[in-house]
């Protein structure tokens, strides 16, 4: 309580100081961005809650237009409310160098060794960030989405997962999310080190780590720790969370880095970690000054994959599964496609993917409808005149994905699940330059665009195609006959860093 009080007083003092300073330095970089005034001194601080952010941001978008600014104490937060503005901010030559940095966070500085890795990397246009992205993408491709060997591994993992699902006989109700989490954790471990190293204990480690980062990454925790970093060393909830996270970080390092280095064989790339270790050894042998691939960097990249790779993919797959479960007609449509393209005597492969536009459209629509989107801030590193508006230096710039994906002007019927919107009259996927495709921004854009998109989408295809080839999936009903509701506005859907359904029960029925 005392800590919260002190942090409040410090914040107010800091705010007054910065407000006076910003008054003195008004640079006239365009007109002020419209937005709510909020309450004196605090601005919109009290409505800025993670689970409610999408509603608040959408409400302000509807009221103020394509760009909205909120004030949280002394800080400014801008929401970009159209795909066009997001694209311009992150990709246009005039703005991209100024709007692709990330804010400094307590988590990044303390647990990613000074914001190393990709996600927390502070400078979106630094040569190091460019180099890292290139290597990360190459490492993922070398093992992740570029090689048929990985497809075989995914298929084996899907078979294992389906065995677990199969234990639940027709009509027997079960929870799907823990099974999916387990399966994705196994895949993560194969992607990282080439073998299924994830015991049950490791599966819990991944998900506990994610949960703890979510907690440490909340605006409240972040603000308090920035004001009182010494709390890290004291007893109490803040220190205890930090110590817990530190212990988990050590366990992840042991699992993916120490053990991988011990069994490393030059010339043999078993997974992403071997690729990175190989690059590290190359830098050492070349006696390179200012090395990129230090152990700290390698760990930060491990954390990136655990965070960015697991939480998002779990959410995206759960969303698609949830939508399909509630729209049986689309299960049938995909099954018609599967019967025509794949038949019943072999497994679906990634080569079938471009002949299955309905499955692709359902995947895209479920991501739009429930908006898996990650809440990831960019930071303005300069005062920018953005399309006539003044974005001040150090403003947090968010893409308002929720609003963009539910904007009635774009989608017409945004609250209806209708995958056909992504198909043309012949049933083919709309071309990339179609306005609807351009408004689908689930993986971000430009320099910070998701490096795992291709891997994530191919995995989703294989999981869904394999399951639907064999089964139909139904939502379970409780004793009163009611079941969970698949609607982005329903309380059965949870919007946090990503959006996904709350734990739900289902049952399956064999197709043949
Ligand atoms: C359906 C699943 C996924 C979704 C919806 C998703 C979405 C996103 C989004 C919205 C961003 C931020 C873009 C921005 O800041 O403007 C991002 C960044 C990132 N994603 Fe993904 N992602 C997914 C899967 C993955 C996977 C499987 C991996 C890796 C194995 C991955 C690795 C990353 C990394 C490293 C970044 C940071 C890039 C940077 O800051 O330069 N993601 N992702």
UniProtKB/TrEMBL annotation:
Q: How does it sit in the membrane?
A: Peripheral membrane protein
GO BP terms, alphabetized: hormone biosynthetic process; progesterone metabolic process
GO CC terms, sorted: endoplasmic reticulum membrane
Major localization class: endoplasmic reticulum
Q: Which key words tag this protein in UniProt?
A: Endoplasmic reticulum, Heme, Iron, Membrane, Metal-binding, Microsome, Monooxygenase, Oxidoreductase
User: Where does it localize?
Assistant: Endoplasmic reticulum membrane; Microsome membrane
Q: Name one GO molecular function term.
A: iron ion binding
Cofactor(s) this protein cannot do without: heme
Q: Which residues bind heme?
A: 450
SUPFAM superfamilies listed in its UniProt record: Cytochrome P450 (SSF48264)
UniProt keyword Cell inner membrane, yes or no: no
* Family under the similarity heading: Belongs to the cytochrome P450 family.
Name of the protein = Cytochrome P450
Which organism is this protein's natural source? Dreissena polymorpha (Zebra mussel)
The record lists the lineage as:
Eukaryota, Metazoa, Spiralia, Lophotrochozoa, Mollusca
């Amino acid at each position: 309580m005392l800590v919260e009080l002190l942090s409040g007083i410090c914040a107010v003092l800091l705010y007054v100081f910065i407000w006076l300073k910003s008054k003195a330095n008004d640079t006239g970089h365009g007109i002020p961005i419209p937005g709510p005034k909020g309450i004196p001194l605090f601005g919109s601080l009290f409505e800025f809650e993670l689970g409610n952010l999408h509603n608040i941001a959408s409400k302000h978008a509807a009221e103020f237009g394509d760009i909205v600014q909120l004030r949280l104490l002394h800080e400014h937060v801008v929401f970009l409310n159209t795909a066009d503005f997001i694209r311009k901010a992150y990709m246009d030559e005039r703005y991209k160098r100024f709007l692709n940095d990330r804010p400094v966070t307590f988590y990044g500085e303390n647990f990613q060794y000074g914001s190393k890795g990709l996600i927390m990397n502070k400078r979106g246009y630094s040569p190091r960030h460019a180099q890292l992205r290139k290597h990360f993408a190459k490492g993922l491709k070398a093992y992740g989405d570029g090689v048929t060997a990985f497809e075989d591994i995914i298929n084996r993992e899907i078979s294992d997962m389906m065995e677990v699902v199969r234990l639940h006989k027709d009509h027997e109700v079960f929870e799907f999310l823990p099974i999916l989490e387990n399966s994705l954790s196994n895949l993560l471990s194969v992607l990282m080190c080439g073998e299924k190293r994830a015991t049950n204990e490791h599966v819990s480690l991944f998900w506990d780590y994610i949960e703890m980062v979510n907690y440490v990454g909340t605006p409240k925790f972040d603000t308090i720790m920035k004001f009182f970093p010494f709390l890290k060393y004291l007893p109490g909830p803040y220190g205890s969370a930090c110590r817990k996270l530190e212990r988990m970080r050590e366990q992840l390092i042991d699992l993916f880095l120490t053990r991988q280095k011990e069994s490393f064989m030059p010339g043999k790339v078993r997974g992403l970690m071997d690729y990175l270790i190989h690059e590290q050894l190359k830098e050492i042998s070349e006696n390179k000054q200012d090395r990129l691939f230090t152990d700290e960097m390698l760990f930060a990249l491990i954390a990136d994959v655990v965070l960015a790779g697991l939480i998002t993919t779990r959410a995206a797959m759960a969303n698609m599964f949830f939508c399909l479960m509630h729209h049986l007609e689309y299960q049938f449509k995909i099954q018609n496609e599967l019967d025509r393209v794949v038949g019943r005597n072999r497994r679906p492969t990634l080569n079938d993917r471009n002949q299955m536009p309905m499955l692709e459209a359902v995947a895209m629509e479920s991501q739009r409808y429930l908006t898996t989107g990650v809440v990831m801030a960019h930071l303005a590193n300069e005062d920018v005149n953005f399309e006539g508006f003044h974005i001040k230096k150090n403003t947090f710039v968010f893409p308002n994905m929720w609003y963009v994906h539910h904007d009635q002007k774009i989608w017409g019927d945004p609250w209806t699940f209708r995958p056909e919107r992504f198909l043309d009259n012949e049933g083919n996927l709309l071309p990339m330059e179609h306005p609807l495709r351009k408004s689908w921004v689930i993986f971000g854009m430009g320099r910070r665009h998701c490096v795992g998109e291709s891997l994530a989408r191919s995995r989703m295809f294989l999981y869904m195609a394999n399951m639907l080839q064999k089964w139909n999936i139904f939502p379970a009903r409780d004793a009163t006959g009611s079941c969970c509701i698949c609607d982005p506005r329903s309380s059965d859907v949870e919007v946090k860093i990503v959006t996904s359904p709350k734990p739900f029960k289902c049952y399956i029925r064999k197709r043949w």
